[in-house]
């Protein structure tokens, strides 16, 4: 099933009222995801999850609770009780951003593997129904793309059918979707083979085409924030600094 971004947006907007109407109150944005979004610590620097940079784009009163963890899939995150931990504290009006696929793709690992059109969607439904049961708003986030180019310099998609399965589920469940996979692929294409190295965790000892350094995490967080406004997950007043430079010095890594 091929689903356009317009169909996804139309379904989500028809189902859910605008966030931000009425008196503003403190709300929390929970992130369920993998290492590309997760909090990193001093022993991993300069590796940076995009969830670490997202608070820089949100107004005061919107708090990010980053529950993303390295190496988790939509299945293992649930099996380890991590979704239950979020659902035990999430409140009406809060948001739950759900980004998985990197580790769902690991066919050789039964603890993490899901099949895009069956078990992956089944797992994602647990996040959707769980958030809704608590009066919170679920938001699906397609997986951010890896850095991979062909010999002609074309940025290549690396997530197979998982983004398409998530887009279709968003339409089926009438839930908001941030298509970060498509947006990040376009960004990597615009930057090109060499410039993208400055966004990923390339160091003197490592050439990592999956995880980000501070500039990359900030760039992806900006995509998330911008797409959140476009899809009306956030009201425009909820988002700040969309067109401003964010100093990489704002990124910090707590002690491990």
Average pLDDT taken over every residue = 92
Number of strands: 7
Strand arrangement in the largest pleated sheet: 2-1-3-4-5
The structural class is alpha/beta
Largest sheet, strands/sense/barrel: 5 strands, parallel
Our estimate of the beta-strand percent is 5-15%
> How many helices does DSSP assign?
8
Distance between the termini: 43 Å
- What share of the residues lie within helices? 25-40%
Low-confidence stretches: 1-22
Question: What are the secondary-structure elements, in order, as H or E?
Answer: HEHEHHEHEHEHEEH
Task: Please tell me how large the radius of gyration is.
Answer: 17 Å
Could you characterize what this model shows?
There is one protein chain. The chain has eight helices and seven strands. The chain has helices spanning 5-15, 50-53, 74-79, 82-87, 116-133, 162-173, 180-195, 214-230, and strands at residues 27-33, 62-66, 95-99, 137-141, 176-178, 200-202, 207-212. The N and C termini lie far apart (43 Å). Residues 1-22 have low confidence and may be disordered.
Which helices and strands occur, and which strands form pairs?
Elements: H1 5-15, E1 27-33, H2 50-53, E2 62-66, H3 74-79, H4 82-87, E3 95-99, H5 116-133, E4 137-141, H6 162-173, E5 176-178, H7 180-195, E6 200-202, E7 207-212, H8 214-230
Parallel strand pairs: 1-2, 1-3, 3-4, 4-5
Antiparallel strand pairs: 6-7
């Amino acid at each position: 099933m091929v689903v356009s971004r317009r169909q996804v947006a139309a379904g989500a907007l028809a189902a859910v009222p605008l966030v931000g109407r009425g008196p503003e109150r403190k709300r929390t944005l929970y992130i369920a995801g993998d290492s590309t979004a997760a909090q990193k610590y001093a022993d991993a620097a300069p590796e940076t999850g995009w969830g670490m940079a997202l608070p820089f784009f949100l107004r005061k009163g919107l708090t990010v609770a980053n529950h993303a963890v390295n190496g988790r899939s939509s299945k293992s995150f649930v099996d380890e009780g991590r979704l239950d931990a979020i659902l035990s504290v999430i409140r009406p009006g809060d948001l739950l951003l759900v980004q998985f696929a990197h580790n769902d793709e690991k066919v050789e690992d039964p603890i993490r593997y899901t099949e895009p059109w069956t078990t992956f969607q089944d797992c994602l439904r647990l996040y959707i129904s769980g958030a809704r049961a608590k009066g919170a708003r679920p938001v699906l986030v397609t997986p951010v793309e890896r850095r991979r180019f062909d010999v002609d310099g074309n940025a290549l998609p690396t997530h197979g059918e998982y983004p398409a399965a998530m887009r279709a589920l968003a339409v089926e469940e009438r839930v908001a979707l941030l298509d970060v996979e498509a947006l990040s692929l376009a960004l990597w294409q615009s930057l090109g083979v060499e410039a993208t190295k400055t966004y990923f965790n390339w160091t003197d000892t490592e050439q990592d085409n999956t995880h980000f350094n501070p500039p990359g995490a900030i760039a992806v967080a900006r995509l998330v924030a911008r797409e959140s406004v476009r899809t009306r997950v956030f009201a425009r007043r909820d988002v700040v600094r969309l067109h401003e430079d964010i100093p990489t010095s704002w990124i910090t890594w707590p002690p491990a």
